[in-house]
Write a structure and sequence with these properties.
CATH superfamily of the largest domain: Aldehyde Dehydrogenase, Chain A, domain 1
CATH topology of the largest domain: Aldehyde Dehydrogenase, Chain A, domain 1
Shape: globular
CATH architecture of the largest domain: 3-Layer(aba) Sandwich
Radius of gyration: 25 Å
Strand content: 15-25%
Number of helices: 14
Structural class: alpha/beta
Largest sheet: 7 strands, mixed
Strand order of the largest sheet: 14-17-18-13-12-20-21
Number of strands: 26
Helix content: 25-40%
């Protein structure tokens, strides 16, 4: 059971505690927030509803802890991160159990997320030692009109206190992708986990606690976004915000003030299929890319743009694979599990109803039980349908038939989103030309979009985000350059 054994101190028998100053505490509010199991649609867990005063305290403590942490040798910081990674992997089972119950992630995928998170933390420690251990040396006479009278030494220094806000769909992995770089770079960290996924995140934070990080350096604040969300993101004590999620990110960016922002805000990832593509490869990637974790991934295939001449053959192959997907509970490792909430299911249904009214071809019957939506491929989707542009975040995938590559590129680029895209063709020249033309942060050639490996750069353009992620980019983004200039005395003698 989550909250048992090594995790006993994070749970008081009814409510999970929040983490501050190296301790697990109950909020003075006396209130809690319910976490509803998407499968049973009943309350599974409760977490503390922290107050603004508790947020202030966490940030004040973080500021103090960060000063001494920044002076801690780099190898010691790395050592603690390696220790946290090992503890995280050791306790993958109870953390994965939380993911299954909070966000209906299939059991095997939940375990994979925790293991991947441990690997990410270890890699971050190694990469941090490499890139933070290097500085730069400049001499003044490399710029016109200057003598060699100045030496400039540059190094990377921490920003201060980082606010990390991960999303519900990867509440552990996308938390450590922010925590690891922040800590190795010498920053303190305040984590505000999503409500669905908060208990898995609290378990993960306990692994960092057990690793022995200094008190106050890491805090995990739970609560209602309406009460502490804006308060956190607009707090003068926060020096950088790393956010992954949806529309909320736009509001944060408008309110945050002059702090560095790292944001990944969703996508409408297009898959362009050319006539010469290997259709078996395309079909398996569309099913994996469009339906894994019930389509609740920012890098899921969200629209298929296929050349008319191969569309019938491709749709037939995809339908054959969709028919084999298992639908049911996450505990049973079903391919398709319930979406995260009733409001999410209702939104997806709205897109389906709109597509039906406007004449899309339903390749399967639309079926829903509670939050569980059966996988659905919609053929002959047209640009006047909402599903052509909006992100369903569910197991519903539109197919738009195109008569030219330019038509596909135009549809992709007309979207407000620009996270990832993919193109399937055997012609590398065409693939590269299409990649150059697609307005997205990443283009995958002959594979479905994906965020990993976690050290690859990961970024979106337009409404898909600000800045770039990936371990190296995150470390660089969570530091700033410090220059020290040595002014040499004027020569008063000649060397002979």
């Amino acid at each position: 059971m989550a909250g048992s054994g090594v995790f006993e101190e994070i749970f008081d028998g009814e409510v999970f505690k929040y983490y501050v100053d190296g301790e697990w505490r109950k909020s003075s509010s006396g209130k809690s927030v319910a976490i509803v199991n998407p499968t049973t649609r009943k309350t599974q867990y409760r977490v503390q509803a922290c107050t603004q005063e508790e947020v202030n305290k966490a940030i004040d403590l973080a500021k103090v802890a960060q000063k001494s942490w920044a002076r801690t040798p780099l190898w010691k910081r790395a050592e603690l991160l390696h220790r946290a990674a090992a503890i995280l992997k050791e306790h993958k089972a109870p953390i994965a159990e939380c993911l299954v119950k909070e966000i209906a992630k299939p059991a095997k995928d939940a375990v994979t997320e925790v293991v991947r998170s441990g690997d990410l933390v270890s890699y971050t420690a190694e990469e941090g030692v490499r890139i933070l251990g290097e500085g730069k040396f400049l001499v003044s006479d490399s710029f016109p009109g200057n003598e060699r009278s100045k030496y400039c030494l540059t190094s990377k220094i921490p920003l201060g206190v980082i606010l990390a806000i991960p999303p519900f769909n990867y509440p552990v992995n996308l938390a450590v992708s922010k925590i690891g770089p922040a800590l190795i770079a010498g920053n303190a960290l305040v984590l505000k986990p999503p409500t669905q996924g908060a208990v898995a995140a609290l378990h993960m934070v306990h692994c960092f606690h057990l690793a022995g990080f200094p008190k106050g350096l890491i805090s995990c604040i739970t609560g209602k976004g309406s009460e502490i969300g804006d308060f956190l993101t607009m707090h003068p004590g926060i020096n950088c915000i790393s956010f992954t999620g949806g529309d909320t990110g736009v509001a944060i960016s408008k309110k945050a003030g002059m702090v560095p922002l790292q944001m990944e805000l969703g996508g409408k990832d297009a898959c362009i299929v050319l006539e010469d593509a290997d259709l078996d490869l395309v079909a398996s990637n569309i099913v994996k890319g469009g339906f894994s974790y019930s389509g609740q991934r920012c890098t899921a295939v969200k629209v298929v743009l296929v050349m008319e001449s191969v569309a019938d053959a491709l749709v037939e192959k995809v339908n054959a694979k969709v028919a084999k997907l298992s639908v049911g509970a996450p505990e049973e490792d079903s391919d398709i599990t319930p979406v995260v909430s009733e409001s999410s299911a209702n939104f997806i249904e709205g897109l389906v109803v709109d597509a039906k009214e406007k004449g899309a071809t339903f390749c399967q019957e639309y079926k829903r039980e509670g939050n569980l939506i059966w996988p659905l491929l919609l053929d002959n989707v047209r640009p006047d349908m909402r599903i052509a542009w909006e992100e369903p975040f569910g197991p519903v995938l539109p197919v738009i038939r195109i008569s030219s590559v330019d038509e596909g590129i135009h549809h992709c680029n007309a979207s407000n989103f620009g996270l990832q895209g993919c193109v399937f063709t055997k012609d590398i020249n065409k693939a590269m030309m299409i990649s150059d033309a697609m307005e997205t942060g990443t283009v995958q050639i002959n594979s479905a979009p994906a965020r990993g490996p976690d050290h690859f750069p990961f970024q979106g353009i337009k409404d898909s985000g600000i800045g770039s992620q990936g371990i190296t980019n995150s470390i660089n983004m969570m530091t700033k350059i410090k220059s020290t200039v040595i002014n040499l005395p004027s020569p008063t003698y000649t060397m002979g």
